[in-house]
Amino acid sequence: MKPHSYKLRQHRYSTINHYYSVTTCTNQRIKYFAEFNNARALINSLKKSDLNGLTKTICFVVMPDHVHWLFQLKTHIPLSSVVAKVKGRTSFSMHKNKSEKIWQSGFYDSLIRHEKHLLHQSRYIAANSIRAGMVEQLGDYPHWDCIYLTPMNN
Fold first, then answer.
1. How far is CA 124 from CA 14, 17, 129, 135, 144, in A?
2. Dihedral angle at the C-alpha atoms of 59, 63, 150, 43, nearest 10 degrees?
3. Residue 97 has what pLDDT?
4. What is the pLDDT of residues 15-65, one digit of tens each?
5. Can you give the chain as a three-state secondary structure string?
6. Rounded to a whole number, what is the distance in angstroms from the first to the last CA of the chain?
7. What is the pTM of this model?
8. Strand 144-146 relative to strand 19-25: parallel, antiparallel, unpaired?
9. CA distance 4 to 41
10. Strand 66-73 relative to strand 108-112, pairing
């Protein structure tokens, strides 16, 4: 663990039916998710979390070396455990070399306190690939989804 990563957990708490925005990065910011199949493995892990009743995904974007994920926690299982399950499932799905560490330890989270913040955060997450200069239009990036927006290609 990084020397100060424990500070990420100091005031973290998990409350069922609350909304959280989570960002987590790959180990050494290696661009694992630039490979299409790896990005899809992560997206499938997010969907599996929803299907298992742990989360309800509102929005996500998978960037080459990190993911932004906005969701409603639907279980009493702690937030840290839910994120660990997604990271573990993704690592298992894409592992070619079992000794290779895919993820950095920990993650950043933010509790969404009101609907206005939820909408703002959704737009921020969805537009991440545009701000990064990867695409000019949101619909041109394949690894995102948002219940408030529909991906469109012109």
1. 23, 22, 10, 15, 12
2. -70
3. 65
4. 999 999 999 999 999 999 999 999 999 999 999 999 999 999 999 999 999
5. CCCCHHHHHCCCCCCCCCEEEEEEEEHHHCCHHHCHHHHHHHHHHHHHHHHCCCEEEEEEEEECCEEEEEEEECCCCCHHHHHHHHHHHHHHHHCCCCCCCCECCCCEEEEECCHHHHHHHHHHHHCHHHHCCCCCCHHHCCCEEECCECCCCC
6. 44
7. 0.88
8. unpaired
9. 30
10. unpaired
Structure tokens, 54: 């742990």
What are the beta bridge partners of residue 59? Answer: 70, 146
Give me the amino acid identity at 4: H
d(CA 39, CA 19): 23
Are 106 and 92 in contact by the 8 Å Cβ rule? The answer is no
State which amino acid sits at residue 38.
Answer: N
Q: How many CA atoms lie within 13 A of 143 on its CB side?
A: 26
